[in-house]
Amino acid sequence: MVQSIPRKAVDQTGIEERCDRFKKRSIKKDAKVQGLQLALSMIDLTTLEGKDTPGKVRQMCYKAMHLHDAYPGLPTVAAVCVYPNFVETAKKALKGSGVLVASVATAFPSGQSSLQVKLDDTRMAVEAGADEVDMVISRGKYHCGDFGFVYDEIAAVKEACGKARLKVILETGELVTLDDVAYASRIAIAAGADFIKTSTGKVQPAATMPVTLTMLEVIRDHYFATGQMIGMKPAGGISNAKLALHYLIMVKESLGQQWLDKHWFRFGASSLANDLLKQLVKQKTGAYQSSPYFAID
User: Fold this and answer.
1) For each successive 10 residues of the chain (297 residues), what is the average pLDDT?
2) How many domains does the chain divide into?
3) Does residue 197 carry a catalytic annotation?
């Protein structure tokens, strides 16, 4: 199967020039407010630390449902993302809210474990109620040229997901080149990914506009060839509202209006939420609020 997946060179200069043009677009007034609210609705609030506790997860879930109660009419975020052992806690805290629960799995963030451990990790998350699973590919195997292993592993995890949607994390900072980002994206989609995702947030650089645009173009090519929509999630490094709006412009102009929906596009950037809230309050009141005005977690 992997042999039939094409390796095509990416025009890096062209990608970077297009990204520069996206950054020069200006969105004002009502359209800006709509864009800020749309970006809020696409966020996966995330806590993936060794010091995570049930209390911290419950607090994050509360924020997911109540981003800023002083501003009526705000959407909730799309999902919260936690380790598998906190999925049940998050599901209970979010019951009835419409906010999804995503769980990392497959020996996140390194991916350095056996297939059996990765499948057990995935099944643990799904059995606890995860709506989505964020897996990491085996970058070591990829760099060894064992692309069949990468494909087979994704396919096996997809089967273990059952009805849960699968986001495949490429860890693009470790893939390095746009050619490899594109090829790994094609492998992930062919193996059954529902979403492709840039990063774990643990490696720098994480999401960048050139990397994201490269992945969007792979999604576009797949859609033109098959009619199947694939989701996209840039994660890490998107911390301000202005950049988030540039990403939304890029998505619309690369894939079309139908991808401007939380079912197909996400931001993996918890710190982004507060900057979006700051900008929304500024649009409403004319004044910026300081960071302590909003909940951190």
Assistant:
1) 88 96 87 95 96 97 92 94 98 97 97 97 98 98 97 98 98 96 98 97 92 98 98 93 96 97 94 92 77 63
2) 1
3) yes
CB 175 within 8 A of CB 208: no
Cα separation, 73 vs 244, in Å, equals: 20
- Taking the C-alpha atoms of residue 270 and residue 272, their distance in angstroms, rounded to an integer, is 5
For residue 87, give every residue at least 6 positions away whose Cβ sits within 8 Å of its Cβ, in sequence order, or none.
Answer: 101, 103, 125, 128, 129, 130
Catalytic residue selected from 197, 262, 275, 278:
197
Range of the domain at 43: 2-293
Determine which one of 63, 158, 233, 278 is catalytic: 233
Q: What's the rounded Cα separation, in Å, for the pair 268 and 198?
A: 9
Active site residue 134: yes
- Which of these is catalytic: 121, 134, 194, 275? 134
The pLDDT, as a whole number, for residue 253 is 95
Q: What is the CATH number of the domain that holds 175?
A: 3.20.20.70
pLDDT, residue 44, reads: 97
pLDDT on residue 287: 73
